[in-house]
Amino acid sequence: MQYVTLNNGVQMPILGFGVYQIPPEQTEQAVTEALAAGYRLLDTAAAYGNEEAVGRAIKKSGIPREELFVTTKLWVQDAPAEDNTRRAFETSLTGLGLDHLDLYLMHQPFGDVYGQWRAMEALNGEGLAKAIGVANFYPDRLIDLVLNNEVTPAVNQIETHPFFQRAGYQDLMRERGVQTQSWGGFAEGKNDLFGNPLLAGIGREYDKSVAQAVLRWLTQRGVVAIPKSVRAERMAENIDIFDFELTDEQMAAIATLDTGSTLFFDHHDPEMVDWLAKRRLDA
After folding, report:
1. Cα torsion through 87, 135, 48, 91, rounded to 10
2. Going by C-beta distance under 8 Å and a sequence separation of 6 or more, which residues neighbour residue 197?
3. Which of 175, 158, 140, 132 is nearest to 223 (CA)?
4. Distances from the Cα of 55 to the Cαs of 1, 59, 190, 271, in angstroms?
5. d(Cα 1, Cα 217) in Å, to the nearest integer?
6. What is the chain's pLDDT, residue by residue, as a tens digit (283 residues)?
7. Which one of the listed residues 3, 20, 39, 48 is annotated catalytic?
8. Whole-number Å distance between alpha carbons of 68 and 136
9. Chain mean position to CA 262
10. Which of 172, 194, 275, 283 has its CA 20 to 30 A from that of 213?
11. Active site includes 114?
């Protein structure tokens, strides 16, 4: 496994296992198989509803805690966000059955963002969250947060895939010391990603699948990836990407697939902002 070093010195695997959209009743088995395949970075969220299942798989695995890198995410909190954030964190930690997190992310750039971040800074200072970061922050919101707080987010988890590559944004984040992490690395198959002739051709050159070519492209860019699967053979395939390297020409060819636009939703869309900002997990 390869690692990236976050801005506070914490080492994070560059490839992990995500559990978004895995039903709670399937999550424990999926995580168990992912850990058996060699994954040590696990990515969940309070909003996914499967933290407890992830925790059960971790406990049953017998893998030493120091070998795991566990991430979960804070959902939108109302003021007083400091109190609500700590309660949400403790609920997640209890569900996971852990005494600390390796990375705690603010899931959306909405609600009392500054109150949430102050609470997360406190959790970080207490060692309960070894690193803190954000998700779905566009450049304006990220730079504003960086400039007006003591702790710079270690990670920004954003939509990143061959059709929405975010290269310029990655450069900006690198300048600020923020690690790019991809969600939706396979674009959920949109734009016929798995049938794309360019990606398929590159994969064939190395006897690899389209999924492996995409994950190699992401990690070779220095982007942390968290592919999801409920099939053990796919988990094993997705982690088998460190025995080949794409050429500069292949990286440049994949760059031509970039559309520059989201394939999912825009956090600047007023209707989406309204929906996300009003959603509460206890509703």
Report:
1. -10
2. none
3. 158
4. 22, 6, 31, 34
5. 15
6. 999 999 999 999 999 999 999 999 999 999 999 999 999 999 999 999 999 999 999 999 999 999 999 999 999 997 789 999 999 999 999 999 999 999 999 999 999 999 999 999 999 999 999 999 999 999 999 999 999 999 999 999 999 999 999 999 999 999 999 999 999 999 999 999 999 999 999 999 999 999 999 999 999 999 999 999 999 999 999 999 999 999 999 999 999 999 999 999 999 999 999 999 888 886 4
7. 48
8. 24
9. 16
10. 172
11. no
Q: % helix / strand / coil in the chain, to the nearest 5?
A: 45, 15, 40
Overall domain count for the chain: 1
CB 35 within 8 A of CB 29: no
Question: Is 283 domain-assigned?
Answer: no
Q: Which residues span the domain enclosing 45?
A: 3-278
Q: What is the pTM of this model?
A: 0.97
